[in-house]
């Protein structure tokens, strides 16, 4: 540009850009700003030396990048934090692992520790099926009530969590009710359902239903319908129904039973965590005393 | 395009004030106010108050880590912070009341900004000399004298700043213990951080910012005029008597002229650097030093004192129209301030006298809302919190009323009996409570939870719900 245009009021050179009579002044960047900019450039060089800064080629699972003179990385910081938490937890964990369930439940400190650990582990692992409050859903048992398929003592709950139900483990809880659709006629199934409902309602029932129940069902569910925990056979005489308590629900279950599945958590969770979970589930309200 | 054009000025350059030494009634009052306020500030944390073995014996203490506030016989928990709100309301209205009567006396005599600025100016004067010497030194070259005098002044300021910050932390810790720790340089970083921060802020505010704090930072000085009326005492120059001002030689006649000899002493002693003869100004903190200065001069020229004095606009009007000068303490404005003071004060006193020694809180479970048990009964779960604000451990008996055949069970370590729940002194106990009852006909039943102390003296109730809607 040959001609330098200066602003009339301030005497500052303009950029030559003009919008509706307003001109942009060509003020230089403030000195302090320029100074700070230069300092940040110098600072960045120091940063490269001290901290991990540059990416490098790395294989699968390797942590690439320059390490920096201090050796500090976010990975090492994470590991340190985790080690710190584990060390803090260890004080309780050692005592927790060495104590029986009865001892833990009598010790306010250990009990609070177990519940804290159990609560968070439950929300991480169990809430997906059983709900955050453990209230379950149809086909997923409510853990708050006092009706237990496999037992409600802390040790029974621990075993269920550890090995699962119908899971891929030799010690898993296992039961299988046959599908009676091929064995019984529809009207026979209807009579059995009526008889089963009479356990809790006290209503009249067809005689044939009682006879068929006695032949085919009482072996597992007991004559009075109270079930058998050793076989995981549900109690049919109480107010709680796993797959629904209407007659249609019962008929469907007799014809072709649904069988739920729970994983064996021993492959995912530590023994300590499983013990904490058992204590937590037991504390939800329906827990039973040890046999 | 002219070379003479001046760049636009955005900020006015500050004229630093070098208040001249003055002696008189108000200066004396200011010294007394300084000694009293600083005395309270430095000594109050060392006052003791016996509260028994489970509580600290410091009269004034804000215990952050234990979440307790202590003020002599008052003791508050975090949820009772409304007492603090009440105190702040009282303080604000009391300030309004005093201001409407006597102007900005708070600013002039007791505000920490004023007290510490006064202290710093005093240090400045002791080291560097009075106004003229200080100005000469500040505007002069960097001589050896200037360097050592400035260094000494600033060092003393920083020492005062450290003492200020050092005293502040005593209000948040046991003072004698902390004093011991400070002497041995074994203070927690939080304490050290506060001392450093307050040292710096004191140094900055009282050493450099000074009257600018009042002029630009303090909101109060900006809305003070809202509390003024014609009967508010303000510092004023009596222009009726003073004008026409002018130099006066001894022996000259006083006829046909005012009493003001234009000596500018009132300007020289002013800590905020204004000329009071221009009338009431936003910057004036009503410290009365110009009154002292002017009276001294009036004595010398043998004219009556009070050319600059505390007076009201109402009095001036009365004088001019020949009515008697009367100041009413009770005016609509002051009446309302007194009313608010009495009302808020009474509410706080009532709250304090009726402060419960304990509280019961019951929180219904949200998930699940209720549980159907195998025998068809319904169970509801609750989180129970019992606060024990006394300094003794208390056994509480918990009971539930409002639903028939209800059974209660407390879920906690060691299966405690609901009729004997231990709540430690000065703490909160947390329990899980299960209430089981035959399914009620209504979906929502109102329950009353009651916690009674073993001696029967404390009875706390809480109204809650028993839910049973659904299958």
Summary tags:
heterodimer, A: 291 residues, mainly alpha, two-stranded antiparallel sheet, 10 helices, 47% helix, B: 471 residues, alpha+beta, Immunoglobulin-like, 3 domains, 5-stranded antiparallel β-sheet, 4-stranded antiparallel β-sheet, 40% helix, elongated
How do the helices and strands line up, and which of them pair or pack?
The complex is a heterodimer of chains A (291) and B (471).
Chain A: E1 14-19, E2 22-25, H1 31-50, H2 74-98, H3 101-106, H4 108-130, H5 154-163, H6 186-201, H7 207-216, H8 218-221, H9 247-255, H10 271-283
Antiparallel strand pairs in A: 1-2
Chain B: H1 25-43, E1 60-63, E2 68-71, E3 74-76, H2 82-102, H3 105-110, H4 112-128, H5 131-139, H6 144-168, H7 175-183, H8 189-209, H9 211-217, H10 219-223, E4 234-237, H11 239-242, H12 265-268, H13 289-300, E5 308-311, H14 313-321, H15 332-353, E6 358-364, E7 371-372, E8 378-388, E9 394-401, E10 407-411, E11 421-423, E12 427-437, E13 444-453, E14 459-467
Antiparallel strand pairs in B: 1-2, 2-3, 4-5, 6-8, 7-8, 8-12, 9-11, 9-13, 10-12, 13-14
Helix pairs in contact in B: 1-4, 2-15, 4-6, 4-8, 6-8
